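Check this:
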Amino acid sequence: MELTKEYFDQQLEKFVTKEDLEQLASKENIGELQTVVSELKTDMSNLKTDVTAFQDDIRLVKFTLQEINQTLAALNKRDKEDSDSFAKTLVQHEERLIAVEQTLKNLKLKQI
């Protein structure tokens, strides 16, 4: 292989040019990127903390709803028991009233 001007020109074309280097990130660009990445890490950490707090709030709401549902179930049961008892008392009073009315009617008949 001859060391000719054409050979050296071909070899020089393979080297990186200033224009090629301008497309690469500078130290300043890398520093800015590191700052942005650091801020993103902080934001992600804060977001993780917020999500954890939100999950805790959701758990508390779920627990409270379960307690409310249990209380409502107990109240519904008690209300049904009270209604049944009241209805039973009404039936007993109705039966007693009928018996008293019958007794009165019999007494009136005896008086006549």
Notes: The mean pLDDT is 90. The two ends are 154 Å apart (CA to CA). The chain has one domain: 26-111. The helical segments are 5-14, 18-22, 27-111.
